[in-house]
Amino acid sequence: MKVTAPSRFTLNFPTQYGPFTASCYRDLAPSWVDRIYNLALNGYYDSNYFMRVINTSSLQITQFGTSGDPSISELYNWNSTELSGCGVIEPQPSEMKYMNKFSNTFGTLSMSTSFNDDTQTTWNATAELFINTGNNSRLDAMLFVPVCTIDSVGMENILKFPKYVTFSTVEYSLNSNPASTVLES
User: Fold this and answer.
1) Where would one find the signal peptide in this protein (predicted)?
2) Domains and CATH numbers, the chain
């Protein structure tokens, strides 16, 4: 799990709504892109489910990254691992290069993290990713790191996913589509 990713690589995700391809760029956030690369290389994203599809006026994302194998998923669960364990990597420094290149806008794939409202900092990253299906640029200041772009045909397919249902103020996904990852250099 410590292989350095190539400077650019692609991930292919077949879904029941059609495939999408993510082109990832290591120079944007090296330790986070290395994490995605290693997880994909080791089959972590095989048999994944899209657990959250949100389309509100304030947030438009499709989120995934919980392994289909619960024993593997547990290794990357920040609730069950030490902060120094493999489940969590430290955030990138706030002067990340990505801020000048990418934003959390339509067609980008970002590393999901935990954001501390009290300190206004992003403090960890595990294995979850989200696809921006709208303009979520306000997430940039919170260091939700966009590290890949999704091809246009793939974005058309992603937009076919069923959206959430709202119960009270909690958003739930009705979507549970498996995704497998094939790595190409």
Assistant:
1) none
2) 10-184 (2.40.100.10)
CA angle (51, 46, 35) in 5-degree steps: 85
Select the more confidently predicted residue: 60 or 166.
60
Q: Are 13 and 180 in contact (CB under 8 A)?
A: yes
More confident residue, 69 or 125: 69
> Are the C-beta atoms of 24 and 33 separated by less than 8 Å?
yes
Q: What is the pLDDT of residues 91-108, one digit of tens each?
A: 555 555 556 678 999 999
Backbone angles phi and psi of 145, in degrees to 5: -90, 115
CB proximity list for 34: less than 8 A, separation 6 or greater: 2, 3, 4, 5, 26
